[in-house]
Specification:
The complex is a heterodimer of chains A (1168) and B (418). With 1168 residues, chain A is an alpha+beta fold. Classes of the chains: A alpha+beta (1168), B alpha+beta (418). Chain A: Residues 710-880 are annotated as: Disordered.
């Protein structure tokens, strides 16, 4: 008893009480009539004196007569229950039958649930805490947790039971004992709770440890002084390796010590790796915490988007997600970047991004949102796009979920509009949506509006305006106003639309329109005096004060545009002045003042009349205003110093209002948080920290025994050699220290480097030799020679294999350049088709102060004569247009060194005389070998060339391709692709061949024969066959020379996936009959003057698609037939012309996707 | 996190309260009632209501508001999602989640809430685990309990929470081992006046009812997994396998659960199974309006369109309607102006139509808006996207289970604008 006494620090009497209850509980069976509190011994007296009076009442009530109890209860107003019923509850609780006890407890719990006060039953209930019946016990727990706080001293009676439970061999009993013990909020047992938690934190069972983690915040809220001790427990539990504990302990961390970010370091990688297996609620908490953590520990990946070196660590972690890279988009802000340090993503940062991404697939909306906000706040711009799809999916969920998601999407669309643009239609509004959802969707649609989609959006808005939900209509009108201000092209259209709304029957609609028109007119008032006149007329009808005020303001502001009407309006207003609302009155005074200044002859008296009326107005604002204005405008004998400036004051040019989204600037709150939703800081909100300028030491996250998988590869790498000495430096250490001393670097550095070595795993022999050179020739670096630039762009997906080898030998002679630069260089060719998709990354060697422009050009020039001064501080990695411009600049250089070089590959002359099909036939006869065909055949004039590899990226090798439309002789299911290689360098390119095709399933490829030698400024053509499986998926492969590999891809337009078939008109009609319904797609269009004749139509259609004409009787109709190359599905096209160029285009195709795409393409071709 | 929970019925009574931390007075709900008053429709009550000391986050399900009280920053979706999970659990336990059901089972509800949250933080939300902790009430058990005084609290404590498969209870035994999968697809579409599709997409779910002995490990593969554009899984599905092979591999929970929800890739055209011809005119000055509506099947892949129900909110100016349905029955509520026509099955030979006149308020001007039609329908044995389950295999157990797959297409949010 003694230790217990100390622990509880209870008065002696209380301990006696505890004791008596214990004995009571144990020997309860035959003593049920005798309640422990009734024992009339001395100890009890001390006890009584210790408790509060109202508790005293309950204690005594037990033995007082029923009447007295009733009296007592009347004294306490809140007690609603009848005393009688409580008596039988007590009896039941005191009985020795479990079923009676259970029944009583159920009734008590029902009382609690209804919010009735059952506190006076406490003594009777607490006795049953040790009851054997598990359900009774549970219900007693429920009761205890609810009332213990109010009856602290009595609650102590139950403690010993829980203490016994904590020692139970069954883990679940231990856990539940701890759970209840920590839930009864009685300050006096804090030490006991502390002990129990500490003990449970090192329990064998993870479940008990989880409960301990849950108990931590409970204790903390009870007694914040325990913080330090609790942090120790948290630290211990954070190191726990089971998923069961992770979520709960992070939750405890967030509640107790969110500022102790240092506790996370050692557990960071473990948490990332466990994340996917943690239960969903824990995931949310962990992800939110890690978002904050990452903001303090890593560098902003968007600091210069073009410098992403992702390939290295991706390879290191053995990443398998390729699609990630597809999402990446190029976005260049490069020129500013050149001076900065290259950004390299910390491998831990990448680890977090990669391990959270699968959770976008969670069924739990909160988890999806948590990942989405993590990506939004942490991912490189290019990768954020992946979250859009998942968020759009959440829009299918309950309306509350929609509400929250839309709020967040609204914020995101302001920052990253492009991300949600493809999902525009998912935000269309249905009449059944609740108004709050409609308004939010409207917000998103408005944010998404741009020049290209504005017409669709406005058409949608037109439907909304007819809605019955007037609040929503008002919001729509405002949205139109915002679109009009943001997008200049549609301003007039919007304005006209809004003016039409002025004649709407609903006054709210009109009023809202007036307000919005006012804002729009302010932008360009000169052109719209008609509208102002129209609005002036509305003053007779519109009653909504805000709208009236707006009209008056407009007339006043632009009174010189409506010189005749304005005074008249003022006259009318003066008549009704006394009946107007306050804001209208203010505007009448305003109007009067402005008119007085511009047209005092007509309005002098009116103005004075209005001012006199205002002088006696009830509203002091109006009186003040009137006085103020009179002083200003009416010339007085004395004073009036301001009156000469009155014109300036009143008729100053006012800047047009900026109609902004209410969601602007909300993104400083962490998305998905309550604070973001409310746009106000909620209690205990943890600010999302800004990115650090310099990344803190990443080695703090290193763990003694790395438990992750790749450590072996790292070791291997070290054994192999310190291969890439340069690499580590690109992370942020400055100075030309890329020596071979990486071994002494911090561990994580070596990790990233090892990642890089993995990345170049396919590196060839030459690399190693270069390596040696690199370290040898360090001294040479500073020599003012034509220096090799280390600037590159890389596509992440490409990284691991493409990272490997290096460019031509000439470079090697110039200077062995840093490894990573070379690696990434090899991948530039993707640009033209994935301009927006490929993430660009760039790096340059630290010590090279000057950066250079173009790799290939430079190479050429430098070997000849160029000194390093020629280098420009510009970057190739720009948007295409920019690049083009630069190209022309560079061409000048070209002319200096290599006089004749055409940029476009030669297309062999064209025999346009032959019709397409004839060529095909001839080809079929003559060709036996693909190589031959390549040389002999030329395409018809409609053949379009596509760029496969730009000469800059190809380091002088330019490759283009076209679809020659000849059958591929080796395999009839393949499409022949004619490829033109042009060598723009001054040296030979050898061994041109294809490697490692990466094809979608089902796709096949027949490579062209290796081209042994391509002499300088020569052009060679080759033909390869690709079976695209009737899809427009790109075929990706590597184009290899003897020195380099380039990632390229060929994507066919849909029209090239087919070949002509011959059929008669009857056959055509028969086949068409079979392909009705879903398989038929038709579109209407109006043909331009240019192509109203047969010939033009045929030419345009056949240029868009490889199909043949079907003979036809009518001259109003052109028919074409073809079949897809792989599956042979028929494709039938009909162009039916009518009077005045109206035309109907019909496509029948079994494959609906192909049909739709084809319609689009042909439409485009015809309407050009 | 979550401090307290109040359940409020449609007439504004708080009929249940539960506190996980200190007691929060129920007067905090006054702020909620205020917001409720401001919102004209119950669904327009903002899900998050700030009050001086607390934040109220509420969801509306089955005409009951579940109002959670929180005090500090917490992701709102976390709370909303949890509240929905609570409702789902109630529904799972009692069949329905109504005020009466909750009141009848108040003790079970309380026990559930106690288990689901600890100190406001979710603890056990998997239905398999909860069912081991607290047996769902059945008629038989209620009778037995009252006679013998035994309990609906599990005698044995659950092991699932401690195992590697936290969603499945152990020791499952069935005499008939069976696994049923329902592929249900919903078409969400907006059709404009002229009948052309403004937006249409297919959302699908696969609901499973798996009653298999032991610890079966299932794999489900599709003929055409590429159709699935965006998916979300039950936690039991192994994500890696899906990524690599497009195969669903999982150890199922016992009983009913939603295995997968998916979105069909937007490249695919959506077949619209019904079309609507409508002619609704109001004449200026006249107190009569004409109403004509015809439904017909379109792109149904040869299957019958069943359980068709058309609802529409008519303009306020419409006093009454006098219509003639060629089949089915219609109702019109003159107060809410809600027209609903229960069509039944569409017979392609004799298209169902609803024709007649509307009487309008005399003197009132003609309504400038036309009603929108919401259409519901069902098509059995068809997944409109063409998704097909290839095969279902079971590993880890020896017996041969009975397997069944059912397809169904339904209208989701299917609207026709006029």
């Amino acid at each position: 008893m003694n230790p217990m006494q100390k622990l509880l620090q209870l008065p002696v009497g209380a301990v006696n009480m505890v004791k008596s209850v214990q004995s009571q509980v144990q020997g309860q069976a035959n003593e049920e009539a005798k309640s422990p509190v009734l024992t009339p011994d001395g100890g009890q007296q001390t006890w009584y004196s210790a408790v509060q009076p109202d508790e005293l009442r309950h204690l005594r009530a037990d033995r007082e007569s029923g009447e007295e109890k009733g009296f007592l209860e009347e004294g306490v107003g809140t007690v609603q229950s009848q005393p009688l019923r409580h008596d039988d509850l007590k009896e039941m609780l005191d009985s020795n039958k479990d079923s009676l006890k259970l029944e009583a407890m159920k009734r008590i719990v029902a009382m609690i649930a209804r919010g009735k006060n059952a506190s006076e039953l406490f003594p009777a209930v607490v006795k049953n805490v040790a009851c054997k019946n598990i359900e009774v016990k549970k219900l007693v727990y429920v009761y205890l947790v609810r009332y213990a706080e109010e009856q602290q001293d009595l609650a102590l009676l139950s403690i010993s039971t829980f203490q016994r439970g904590l020692k139970d061999p069954n883990q679940l009993i231990r856990a539940s004992a701890l759970r209840v013990l920590s839930s009864i909020r009685v300050t006096i047992i804090v030490p006991i709770m502390m002990l129990a938690i500490k003990e449970a934190a090192s329990d064998m069972s993870p479940y008990v440890r989880k409960t301990a983690a849950h108990a931590i915040p409970k204790l903390y809220s009870l007694d914040p002084d325990q913080k330090d001790q609790l942090i120790e427990v948290i630290e211990k539990l954070l190191a726990d390796k089971t998923t069961l504990v992770a979520g709960s302990v992070v939750m405890a961390f967030e509640e107790v010590c969110p500022e102790r970010i240092d506790l996370i370091h050692k557990n960071y990688r473990k948490l990332c790796n466990l994340l996917i297996d943690v239960e969903e609620w824990g995931q949310v908490v962990i992800i939110n915490m890690l978002t904050r953590y990452a903001r303090t520990q890593f560098l902003n990946p968007n600091i210069n988007e073009s410098l992403l070196e992702e390939g290295c660590e991706k390879a290191f972690y053995g990443s398998d997600d390729e699609d990630e890279s597809k999402e990446e988009s190029a976005d260049a802000e490069v020129s500013t970047v050149a001076k900065r340090k290259p950004y390299v993503m910390d491998p831990d940062h990448r680890l977090l991004l990669r391990n959270t991404k699968p959770l976008l697939q969670s069924r739990n909306a909160a988890v999806v949102m948590a990942v989405a906000q993590l990506y939004f706040h942490l991912a490189p711009k290019a990768e954020v796009g992946v979250i859009a799809k998942a968020l759009v999916r959440l829009m299918r969920s309950h309306s509350e979920v929609q509400y929250v998601v839309l709020q967040n999407v609204a914020t995101m669309t302001i920052k990253r509009r492009g991300m949600f643009e493809p999902y525009l239609k998912s935000f269309y509004i249905r009449s059944t949506d609740p108004t709050q959802i409609k308004v939010l969707k409207l917000e998103v649609l408005t944010n998404l509006a741009n020049e290209t989609n504005i017409s669709t959006i406005l058409r949608e808005f037109q439907t909304y305006i007819k809605s019955m939900d007037k609040d929503f209509v008002a919001a729509t009108i405002q949205a139109i106003g915002r679109c009009a201000t943001n997008i200049g092209e549609v301003r007039d259209t919007c304005l006209n639309g809004l003016v039409q709304l002025l004649s709407n029957r609903d006054e709210l609609v009109v009023a809202e329109s007036v307000v919005v028109i006012k804002k729009l007119l302010q932008m360009q008032p000169e052109q719209h005096s008609e509208i102002i006149k129209h609005m002036a007329k509305l003053t007779d009808n519109i009653q909504v004060p805000m709208a009236r005020a707006s009209i008056l303001w407009l007339i006043g502001e632009y009174c010189e545009h409506v010189p005749k009407i304005a005074p008249d309006v003022l006259r009318k207003m003066a008549k009704t002045f006394t009946n107007e609302e306050d804001i209208v009155k203010l505007q009448i005074i305003n109007l009067a003042a402005k008119l007085y200044l511009t047209n005092s002859k007509q309005t002098k008296l009116l103005t004075q009349y209005v001012l006199n009326l205002a002088k006696y107005d009830q509203n002091y604002d109006i009186r003040d205003r009137a006085r103020f204005i009179r002083q200003l405008i009416v010339p007085m004998d004395k004073g009036g110093a301001l009156s000469k400036y009155a014109k300036k004051l009143f008729l100053a040019l006012k800047p047009a209002p900026v109609l902004e989204s209410p969601f602007k600037d909300r993104d400083h709150f962490q998305l998905g948080s309550l604070s973001h939703l409310l746009n106000a800081k909620a209690g205990a909100y943890q600010e999302l920290p800004d990115w650090p300028e310099v990344a803190p030491d990443p080695s703090v996250r290193n763990v003694e025994v790395p438990e992750w998988t790749k450590c072996s590869s790292r070791d291997k790498r070290k054994d192999k050699k310190v291969e890439k000495p340069f690499y580590s430096d690109s992370e942020g250490e400055s100075g030309p220290t890329e020596s071979a001393d990486s071994g002494s670097d911090s561990q994580s550095d070596s990790e990233s480097r090892s990642g890089s070595s993995e990345g170049s795993g396919s590196g060839s022999e030459s690399e190693d030799s270069e390596e040696d050179e690199a370290s040898d020739s360090e001294g040479l670096e500073e020599a003012p020679k034509g220096r090799k630039i280390v600037k590159s762009k890389m596509k992440t997906s490409a990284s691991d294999s493409a990272a490997s080898d290096e460019s031509g030998g000439e470079e090697r002679n110039v200077r062995p350049k840093p490894k990573h630069g070379k690696r990434s260089e090899s991948e530039e060719e993707e640009e033209e088709e994935s301009e927006s998709e490929s993430s660009e990354s760039e790096s340059e060697s630290e010590q090279e102060s000057e950066s250079e422009t173009d790799v290939k050009r430079k190479k050429k020039v430098s070997t000849a004569s160029a000194p390093s001064k020629q280098t420009k501080k510009t970057n190739v990695e720009k948007k295409e247009t920019v690049e083009k411009k630069e190209m022309s600049l560079l061409d000048l250089d070209d002319f200096l060194s290599t006089p004749v070089e055409s940029t476009t590959p030669q297309v062999t002359p064209v025999n346009s005389v032959l019709s397409n099909s004839l060529v095909t036939d001839l080809e079929g006869l003559s060709l036996t070998d693909s190589m031959m065909s390549a040389v002999n055949i030329t395409s018809s004039n409609s053949v379009k060339m596509y760029e496969l590899l730009h000469r800059i990226k190809g380091e002088g090798l330019a490759v283009e391709y076209c679809f020659s439309r000849q059958p591929f002789s080796l395999d009839m299911h393949m499409i022949a692709v004619q490829i033109h290689f042009t060598n723009n360098t001054s040296s030979e390119v050898k061994n041109l061949h294809v490697e490692e095709p990466k094809l979608q399933s089902g796709m096949r490829m027949k490579e062209f024969q290796e081209i042994d030698v391509l002499p300088p400024s020569a052009t060679v053509t080759a033909v390869m066959g690709i079976d695209f499986c009737d899809s427009t998926q790109a075929a990706n492969f590597q184009l290899c020379t003897h020195t380099r590999k380039f990632f390229v891809s060929i994507q066919p337009p849909v029209g090239e996936l087919m070949m002509p078939v011959f059929m008669t008109e009857n056959e055509f009609k028969k086949e068409q009959g079979k392909l009705m319904g879903m398989n038929e797609i038709s579109e209407k269009l109006v043909l331009g003057e240019m192509c109203r004749n047969d010939l033009a139509i045929v030419q345009r259609v056949t240029s868009a698609a490889n199909i043949g004409r079907v003979p036809c009787g009518s001259d109003k109709e052109c028919r074409f037939a073809g079949k897809t190359v792989t599956s042979g599905s028929l494709v039938l096209v009909t162009v039916l012309t009518k009077e005045g160029g109206a035309t109907q285009l019909t496509v029948n195709c079994e494959k609906m996707v192909i049909g739709t795409m084809l319609v689009k393409d042909i439409l485009q071709a015809l309407s050009q | 996190m979550i401090h307290s929970l109040f359940l409020v019925n449609s007439s504004g009574d708080i009929f249940l309260e539960k506190h996980w931390k200190s007691v929060v007075s129920r007067s905090v709900c006054d702020y909620f009632f205020e917001a409720q008053e401001r919102a004209t429709e119950p669904e327009n009550v903002p899900p998050v209501i700030p009050t001086p000391h607390h934040y109220l986050i509420n969801v509306l399900r089955h005409k009951i508001f579940f109002v959670a009280v929180i005090q500090t920053e917490v992701p709102p979706l976390f709370v909303i999602e949890f509240l929905h999970r609570v409702v789902d659990t109630f529904q799972d336990y009692f069949g329905v989640c109504t005020e009466a059901a909750i009141k009848d089972n108040v003790v079970v509800v309380y026990e559930l809430l106690e288990e689901m949250l600890d100190n406001g933080f979710p603890l056990a939300t998997e239905s398999n685990i909860l069912k081991e902790l607290i047996k769902p009430p059945t008629i038989l058990r209620t009778v037995v309990n009252t006679i013998t005084g035994s309990t609906n609290v599990g005698e044995q404590l659950p092991t699932g929470q401690l195992s590697v498969v936290p969603w499945r209870r152990t020791g499952v035994k069935y005499t008939n081992n069976e696994a049923y999968f329902d592929v249900v697809e919903e078409i969400d579409a907006i059709i404009d006046k002229s009948g052309s599709t403004i937006t249409a997409e297919i959302q699908g779910v696969i609901d499973a009812c798996v009653k298999l002995t032991g610890m079966p490990d299932l794999t489900l593969s599709f003929m055409n997994p590429r159709l699935l554009d965006d998916v979300s899984f039950h936690p039991c599905v192994r994500f890696k396998r899906w990524e690599a092979e497009r195969i669903l591999s999982f150890i199922p929970p016992d009983g009913n659960f939603r295995l997968l929800s998916y979105h069909v890739s937007s490249q695919n055209l959506v077949a619209i199974p019904v079309y609507v011809k409508h002619n609704i005119t109001f004449r200026e000055g006249s107190s009569q309006g004409r109403f004509e509506l015809t439904l017909g099947p379109k792109q149904t892949m040869g299957k019958a369109v069943e359980s068709v129900l058309v609802t529409s909110q008519l303009p306020r100016g419409v006093l009454n309607v006098n219509l003639n349905p060629s089949q089915g029955t219609y109702t019109f509520d003159p107060v809410t102006k809600l027209l609903s026509w229960d069509v039944g099955k569409i017979n392609p030979q004799k298209l169902p139509s609803l024709k007649g006149s509307m009487s309008l308020q005399t003197g009132a001007s003609k309504p400038d808006e036309n009603p929108t039609f919401n259409i519901q329908f069902k098509i059995q044995q068809l997944a409109i996207s063409g998704l097909k389950v290839n095969r279902l295999d079971m590993y880890g157990e020896k017996y041969k289970p009975f397997k069944g797959i059912k397809y169904m297409t339904k209208a989701g949010k299917f609207q026709v604008r006029t």
